[in-house]
């Protein structure tokens, strides 16, 4: 249930009203203070709440029930866009086009540090790189694990780029202290125990859409994190599995405006995993920017033919230089700042 209060509502009236609500009903009340209105979101079993009684209060402008099962991620509860702000001042969702770039897998210090320098020069604000790698085959390279995280930290020291990397299990959380944005991969989107634990920390979470998951299922997974207290969630469209075998996945470009309409959370797109082919990254990335994405997460490798994972979809640093400049140009057309 959503309650919109009148502009003249005072802080004392607001506090008294919330106290009456929580004392009469077993509900959680979320408060969002906007520039023009204050909105209260009632979370829990609202079936017993008397809407007529609520609407009759002098400080209430309107009241309505929300049918969607996701509440905290719902734009109705939070009309303004959420902006994720990192300790270093980097922002996601503030109207700028955010680029996250780096290799699928960390393979060595020279590799990750060299790529970090190149993508930073090209305009990337974040370094992505896999230390723990979920692979379809148990015989494929699984990542450098803790050593890979240490190398990402080294690249961060040298370049100042915040780190984006994937977590696989709850027991690894203590290893992610120096990670700036924790990524939840497509295969773990509905690992609810992991999502609950990530709800208890104070780091941004990049949540990727599952291979065959609906938009509502993605938002419900975000709700798991937010319900735990961590509202710093970034949604990621990375392509879904369809009947089409030519591309690795099918990029659901319509998910970008849909997510922006349904939710206040930032939305980024992964064109690398969606297409699975290097030459497809640029047109898919362009489409994502035009559709309203807040950012892109792109795979860049210094030697794609010899990459230990996902070389076919990785750009070279030179290719990323060229594509990033074009992406920023397209972003300007659609009101995105650099």
From TrEMBL:
Query: Example GO molecular function term?
Result: 3-deoxy-7-phosphoheptulonate synthase activity
Q: Which residues cross the membrane?
A: none
Please report the stretch or stretches of sequence annotated as the DAHP synthase ferredoxin-like domain. Answer: 1-68
Q: Where is the DAHP synthetase I/KDSA domain?
A: 84-330
Give the UniProt record's GO annotations in the biological process aspect.
aromatic amino acid family biosynthetic process
The name on file for this protein is 3-deoxy-7-phosphoheptulonate synthase
Q: Could you tell me the superkingdom of the organism this chain comes from? A: Bacteria
Matching Pfam families, A to Z?
DAHP_snth_FXD, DAHP_synth_1
User: Does the record carry Transferase as a key word?
Assistant: yes
Keyword list, A-Z: Transferase
